[in-house]
Amino acid sequence: MLQAWTTAQTATIKVTVTDLRNTKGVVRACLTPDEDDFPKCKKSSANSVVVPAGKSVSLSFAGVKPGRYAIALLHDENNNNKADRALMMMPKEGFGFSRDAKVRMGPPSFGSAAFTVESGTSSQSIRMRYML
User: Fold this and answer.
1) pLDDT per position as a tens digit, 28-63
2) CB of 44 within 8 A of CB of 34?
3) How many CB atoms lie within 10 A of CB 49?
4) Which domains occur in the chain, in start order?
5) How far apart are CA 109 and CA 58, in angstroms?
6) How would you class 28 by CB atoms within 10 Å of its CB: exposed for 0-12, middle for 13-18, buried for 19 or more?
7) pTM value?
8) Which of 40, 32, 30, 37 shows the shortest CA–CA distance to 67?
9) pLDDT tens across 58-81, in order?
């Protein structure tokens, strides 16, 4: 028998984004349970939120089923719906990941950014980073 998910069995994830370098554009956030879809979040299992940029930004994902997820952020300063890059593929815009996962030679692994979601409300604080 399939179990129906009720509001009591879902979660809300509240995200606070800090260290934005300006208030231009938007912050694009995606939440995914799919290791193969992180950090691009192109599959239908991903949940996306877009909010105006500010000194700090708050956003939330509601109705999230319990499981293991990772969040990827983009400070899309020119609001062109993509991550702009400079020579050698360096990101020109800000980015961030859940658990404040570190970036080395590319984005962090899903495992580095993943966290467990249970019913109720949980919080993530993510610092925006810039390479240029």
Assistant:
1) 999 999 999 999 998 888 999 999 999 989 999 999
2) no
3) 17
4) 10-127 (2.60.40)
5) 24
6) buried
7) 0.90
8) 32
9) 999 999 999 999 999 999 999 999
